[in-house]
Design a protein that fits this description.
Elements (H helix, E strand, L loop, with lengths): L1 H27 L2 H27 L6 H15 L5 H23 L5 H24 L6 E2 L5 H23 L2 H11 L1 H6 L4 H27 L1 E2 L1 H4 L3 H13 L5 H20 L4 H15 L3 H20 L1
Helix pairs in contact: 1-6, 2-6, 2-7, 2-9, 2-11, 2-12, 3-4, 3-9, 4-9, 6-9, 11-12, 11-14, 12-13
C-alpha cells in the first residue's frame, strides 16, 4: 500500500526537514538570531514537556519554574566542578527526582488543590534557597561558567529532538492511551487495571526531566544565577499559556504557540518596553476567549468550514 506508506512517512519527513533547517541555522543566521532561537527552543521544550503530562491527564501543573530552576541551580552549583555533559544530565535528574517526590505527595490531589500546590512549590524553593544562600553561604548568587551561543543552541536543539521522540513514542504506546484514559475518567481507568498513580508520577517526572535539561543548558548563557532568576514565577505560567494558545490537540500545537509567543514577547519588549506586558495580556485574553482550541483548533475549524462549503457547492 504505497499511499499508506507515504501518509505514514510524511510527518517524519516534515520533522526531518525542520530539524535540518534548524541545524543549519547558525551557518547563515546572525548572532542575535541564534540567541533568539535558543530562547524559543527553551520555551518550546517547556511547553511540550508541560503538555506531555498536563494535556492528556488534564492535571494543570504550575511547577515548570520549579523544574527549570532545579536544572539552573544544578548548573550553578556544579558548573565549575564537572564536565558540561555531566552537569546537564544531573540538572535533568535533579528535576526528575524532585518531580517524582512532589508527584508522590500531590498527584492524589485534583483540580485547584493540585494547581495551588505546584505553584506554591516554586515559591517555597525560591525562598528556601534565598534563605540558604544568605544565611549559610553568605552570598546572594552564583556564577556559572559560560559557553558560546552556538553550543547552547545545538544543545537545546538536541534536547528538543529527544523530547519530540519521547512524546511520539509515549503517544503511540499503551501508556499514552492509559494517560488519555486518566484524563477522560480516572476512576474508570483505575477500575480496568491501570495503575493510575504510578503512571501519573512517572510521566510527571519525565516531563520535569526535560525541563531540568533545558534549565541546566540555559544557565550557561545567563552566567550569573540567584534564586529569583532561577525560580521566576512567571516561567510557570508562560508554558501553560503557550501550549493552550497553540492547541493541545496535536503535538505540534505547543510548539507553534511557544514559537509565536517567544518571538512576540521579544518584539514587544524591544518596541514597547513600557507597555509590552499590557499588550501581551490583551493578546492572551483575546486568544483564550475566541480560540478555545488554540491555533491548531482554529485551523481545523477553518478547514472543516472550507470542506463543508466545497461539498455544498459540488
Amino acid at each position: 500500500m504505497p499511499n499508506a506508506r507515504f501518509i505514514l512517512s510524511k510527518p517524519f519527513v516534515v520533522w526531518a526537514l525542520v530539524m535540518l533547517a534548524l541545524a543549519l541555522a547558525p551557518l547563515y543566521a546572525s548572532r542575535y538570531a541564534v540567541i533568539l532561537l535558543s530562547t524559543i527552543l527553551m520555551y518550546v521544550v517547556l511547553s511540550v514537556s508541560w503538555a506531555m503530562f498536563s494535556g492528556p491527564t488534564k492535571y494543570i501543573s504550575l511547577a515548570p519554574a520549579a523544574f527549570l530552576g532545579a536544572g539552573i541551580y544544578s548548573a550553578a552549583v556544579l558548573g565549575s566542578q564537572l564536565p558540561l555533559a555531566a552537569v546537564i544530565a544531573i540538572g535533568g535528574l535533579v528535576s526528575f527526582c524532585l518531580a517524582i517526590l512532589v508527584g508522590a505527595l500531590t498527584l492524589r490531589l485534583r483540580g485547584i488543590y493540585f494547581v495551588m500546590f505546584t505553584f506554591g512549590l516554586v515559591e517555597l524553593l525560591m525562598h528556601f534557597l534565598l534563605w540558604f544562600e544568605l544565611n549559610i553561604n553568605d552570598t546572594t548568587g552564583r556564577v556559572v561558567p559560560s559557553i558560546d551561543n552556538t553550543t547552547v543552541f545545538y544543545l537545546m536543539l538536541l534536547v528538543f529532538a529527544l523530547l519530540m521522540a519521547t512524546v511520539y513514542a509515549l503517544q503511540s504506546s499503551q501508556y499514552g492511551m492509559a494517560l488519555r484514559g486518566v484524563g477522560e475518567n480516572e476512576e474508570a481507568a483505575a477500575h480496568i487495571g491501570i495503575n493510575v498513580t504510578v503512571l501519573k508520577i512517572v510521566v510527571f517526572g519525565l516531563s520535569a526531566f526535560f525541563m531540568g535539561l533545558a534549565g541546566a543548558i540555559m544557565a550557561t548563557r545567563w552566567t550569573y544565577i540567584d534564586p529569583k532568576i532561577a525560580f521566576n514565577p512567571i516561567i510557570s505560567f508562560m508554558p501553560v499559556l503557550m501550549a493552550i494558545f497553540g492547541g493541545l490537540g496535536r503535538p505540534y500545537g505547543p510548539i507553534i504557540g511557544a514559537a509565536i509567543f517567544s518571538y512576540l514577547g521579544e518584539f514587544l519588549i524591544t518596541k514597547f518596553p513600557y507597555y509590552y506586558m499590557l499588550i501581551f495580556g490583551i493578546i492572551l485574553v483575546v486568544a483564550i476567549l475566541y480560540m478555545p482550541g488554540g491555533l491548531v483548533g482554529l485551523a481545523q475549524d477553518i478547514r472543516k468550514h472550507y470542506l463543508r462549503r466545497q461539498h455544498a457547492d459540488s
